[in-house]
Amino acid sequence: MIRNSIALIWGFCEATFFFIVPDVWLSLIAINSLKKGLIACLYALAGAVLGGLLIYYWASRDASGVSYFFNRLPGIYPALQSLVYDQLQSQGIGAMLMGPLQGLPYKLFALQAAQLKVSPIIFLLVSIPARLARFFTVTCFIHVIGHFLQKYWPLETVYRIAVIGWMLFYVFYFRVI
Predict the structure, then answer these.
(1) Of 43, 113, 136, 162, whose CB count within 10 A is highest?
(2) What gap in Å lies between CA 70 and CA 75, rounded to an integer?
(3) 10 and 3 in contact (C-beta within 8 Å)?
(4) CB 101 within 8 A of CB 133
(5) Rounded distance, CA 55 to CA 111, Å?
(6) What is the pTM of this model?
């Protein structure tokens, strides 16, 4: 299905260079179908993990090149890279599980895990719950809200509300971060 292909590609892109999370796409799917949204989460996870491993291996060979590349992306700057490095160094790989709650990009964990010589297998295994927990949570949350809103408004209006909600989220995120 095209929706799952988009989720896979979006997951990969966000893990490597894109700055809008796949949760946007996943939530739009989930408004109308939780099952389809959760299936798309698995595709986004696969894309994210592949992208994370690509960044990990690139960073294991050229960390300064990856860091330079990331610093040109919206929402990423040297102090944020240092924060992720410090968290991984002090808290271990488990810091990846808290990263989504802090708005810390997964791609930075891939870079810093490579610099700290975390095993790629451990990085991969922790990536799965680190990515999937947020994907599933956002997808389920938006489904519940979407289901509720559809009692009062047509589906198209609910989609518009979701898009406006994501736009407001990113305005806030990029102003704060």
Answers:
(1) 113
(2) 9
(3) no
(4) no
(5) 6
(6) 0.94
